[in-house]
Specification:
The protein is α+β, with helices and mostly antiparallel strands. The chain has 12 helices and 14 strands. It has 3 domains: 107 residues, no CATH class; 108 residues, no CATH class; 102 residues, no CATH class. The longest helix has 23 residues.
């Protein structure tokens, strides 16, 4: 069997994983999904200096939504329950942990992956005048466009795309022949002289591969990750330093939201806090949604819905107002931490 996998990278710097060993990280990710998973539940295999850790499981039986579509006379004698196999393959290298998933496993690893891994890795081998773009999804920082998706005809180069105010989120690229041969020669043949890849949160090689080829791809990614990143793709630099984010930027956000409560409560006529409120990882879904479910974190790590609205412009005000109602008398840190728990 051959597959077309997407390779993700675990972000070891996120709060839940910080300070853990690689073995602890694997179990932490899995136990966030299902309690009581131990090393005995994992299959471990090593090739050269790369360790593969496989966790496979059957998803719960669910009744297909098709049953409610048909009249009872058609559906009552049919079995609409379905179950499938899902898996998570952790790939442990000297410095990083990569992940390949199968089945319905994406939601399990999503909170733990490096959101910029694919884009950042491509920026290390980019050839602006040689690489061809097939399609691109980007986030708009300036102007009225929060996000957009574009497709291109042949011979549209990376250098032709770069625009001020845009941050690429996913790009489908045909690498130039020299880069393809240097890093992915084992995937080329007479018909395929250039490598097609999709980069975003992860890296996908647009070709069916076997396990040995996956291993070779991982080895090349390890080599590429040691190269210096180019800032050619965007005029903006993403801040990834967890210490700076936690100590400075989070406090700045808390101060800004706290000052904005005067406007929310009607005690100020001018809003001083300017922000772009959307989910940058799901821009299309966010703007096209029919309804928005506002959730609050619970003590057991879950969420409870406190309001459903239809207008995205009301999300911020509703969340802040809800937090203010719960925190009386107002305490700046407690109140704003509640806001952040809801907003995030």
């Amino acid at each position: 069997m051959q597959i077309i996998p997407t390779i993700y990278k675990v972000d070891k710097n996120i709060l839940k994983l910080r300070g853990l060993t690689d073995e602890e990280i694997v179990l932490k990710i899995l136990n966030d999904f299902s309690n009581n998973i131990t090393e005995e539940d994992l299959s471990i295999f090593q090739i050269e200096n790369i360790e593969y850790i496989l966790y496979a499981f059957n998803t719960n039986e669910i009744e297909s939504e098709w049953k409610s579509f048909f009249p009872k006379t058609l559906s009552e004698t049919k079995n609409f329950f379905q179950q499938s196999v899902a898996l998570i393959l952790f790939i442990k290298t000297e410095y990083d942990i990569y992940v390949v998933i199968g089945g319905n496993s994406y939601k399990i690893i999503l909170p733990f992956i490096d959101q910029s891994f694919g884009i950042d890795t491509y920026s290390k081998i980019i050839k602006p005048t040689e690489d061809n773009i097939t399609s691109i999804k980007a986030r708009g920082i300036t102007g009225n466009r929060a996000g957009f998706s574009e497709q291109y005809r042949n011979d549209f180069k990376i250098i032709d795309y770069i625009k001020f105010g845009n941050v690429p989120k996913e790009i489908q690229i045909k690498l130039d022949e020299k880069t393809s041969k240097l890093h992915f020669k084992f995937l080329l043949d007479k018909k395929r002289t250039r490598t097609n890849i999709v980069v975003g949160k992860g890296i996908k090689i647009k070709r069916s591969i076997n396990f040995n080829e996956l291993h070779k791809i991982v080895k090349e990614i390890v080599i590429i990750r040691q190269l210096v990143s180019s800032d050619f793709l965007s005029s903006y630099t993403e801040i990834t330093d967890p210490i700076l984010i936690e100590s400075d930027l989070k406090n700045l956000l808390i101060d800004s939201i706290y000052e904005d409560t005067r406007y929310i409560m009607g005690n100020a006529t001018v809003r001083l806090f300017q922000f772009d409120f959307c989910n940058p990882n799901n821009i299309e879904k966010f703007y096209e949604a029919d309804e928005y479910r506002l959730k609050e974190k619970t003590d057991n790590g879950g969420h409870t819905i406190f309001k459903i609205i239809n207008n995205k412009d009301e999300i911020y005000r509703e969340v802040i107002s809800y937090a203010l109602d719960k925190m009386r008398p107002l305490d700046k840190f407690v109140c704003l931490q509640t806001n952040l728990d809801i907003l995030v």
